[in-house]
Write a structure and sequence with these properties.
Blueprint (H helix, E strand, L loop, with lengths): L3 H16 L3 H11 L4 H10 L7 H10 L17 E4 L3 E5 L5 E6 L2 E4 L4 E4 L3 H18 L6 E4 L4 E5 L2 E2 L2 E8 L2 H7 L6 E11 L8 E2 L1 H6 L5 H23 L3 E15 L2 E7 L7 E5 L9 H4 L5 H12 L11 H4 L3
Antiparallel strand pairs: 1-2, 2-3, 3-7, 4-5, 6-7, 8-12, 9-10, 9-12, 10-11, 12-13, 12-14
Helix pairs in contact: 1-2, 1-4, 5-10
Length: about 325
């Protein structure tokens, strides 16, 4: 069963559940929200098994009792100073020097904020997907800002000075690349293509060359070398990760920041990696499993994001709703 209203209530209440109360309290509050899985709730909390009648709700409920290390240290973000609010995330001061809390919103935007909507639960899924990917990157030696997940919507991250660049890695022609060069969407590129955009909402994030970056001092040659090599390493990792679950990595966007330690600093990966920042196509059907479903009015955004999470093992054995009803619009 996948009732959108029930899921909306669940998603908007999970944050309060994970941040306060003991196990019995969380169970009782969760029961009061919905009785969809009431007959399985006790067993769910004890055995962490998913309920196939309401897979998304049960998988998230499982998260209430399998919180990551350090979750008990989380404070309500409302009690912390807001430092920055972007289109999809909010940054708050962190509990320790040199840290921030990154909060994932449900807001969806496209075309430089000209198209807007709220997708209930998107922030929860993006938080978990980004956590999963950043942890994987850490294991292969890609330094990044992720420290740990704090709650359903929050991550503890290292405070960095963001370099005003969007780094786009393309494996397949799609989106603006197809429009600019007249390439048929879906055409494999002979090698990964790395592009740079100047990060500016007012200017529409214009495409720029390396000479622009060096001339205007947005990054130096050493930083650019690090950014390029890291972007290609991330591409290798993500391509293998998604290929292994039947997803074609078309392209993705990265951001980088300077992590200072005294007078010295290093350039590290920052921001997020999720269906908001990647183009992901099902290898068999070509189904879009990313933000293009919102950009192009295809519908089924949450089903697509949930499917990515399911394949990554974030929603184990979840019976995610099929996208077939939206496929005719693709």
């Amino acid at each position: 069963m996948q009732d959108n209203r029930i899921l909306e209530v669940i998603f908007h209440t999970l944050d309060s559940l994970v941040s306060g109360g003991d196990r019995e309290h969380r169970k009782n509050v969760f029961k009061s929200i919905t009785n969809v899985c009431a007959h399985h709730l006790e067993g769910l909390l004890l055995s962490a098994k998913t309920c196939r009648r309401c897979p998304l709700a049960s998988a998230l409920a499982r998260g209430l009792v399998t919180a990551p290390q350090g979750q008990q240290e989380t404070s309500r973000v409302s009690r912390r100073s807001k430092l920055y609010e972007g289109k999809a995330k909010i940054l708050y001061e962190g509990p320790e020097p040199g840290t921030l809390i990154q909060y994932f919103k449900d807001d969806a935007t496209a075309f430089n904020n000209q198209k807007k909507a709220t997708l209930s639960g998107k922030g929860v899924l993006n938080n978990h997907i980004s956590e999963h990917i950043f942890k994987g990157l850490t294991t292969v030696g890609v330094t990044n800002h992720f420290i740990r997940r704090l709650s359903m919507r929050e991550q503890l991250i290292k405070s960095v000075e963001i370099i005003p660049l969007e780094v786009i890695v393309r494996n397949v022609a799609a989106g603006t690349l197809s429009k600019r060069l007249g390439l048929e969407e879906g055409t494999d590129l002979p090698r990964p293509l790395v592009e740079y955009c100047y990060k500016s909402d007012e200017l529409g994030d214009p495409l720029i060359a390396e000479d622009h970056i060096l001339t205007f001092g947005w990054a130096n040659e050493y930083e650019l070398d690090d950014i390029l090599s890291t972007a290609l390493r991330v591409n290798d990792f993500l391509s293998g990760l998604f290929c292994g679950i039947g997803i074609r990595l078309v392209d993705f966007k990265l951001e980088f920041g300077r992590l200072y330690e005294g007078d010295e600093y290093m350039t590290i990966l920052a921001d997020e990696i999720s269906p908001d920042s990647c183009r992901l196509w099902d290898m068999e059907t070509g189904e879009k499993l990313d933000k293009d479903r919102f950009r192009r009015d295809l519908g089924g955004e949450m089903e697509a994001y949930s499917e990515v999470a399911r394949r990554l093992g974030i929603l184990p054995s979840a019976d995610v709703q099929e996208l077939s009803e939206h496929r005719k619009k693709r």
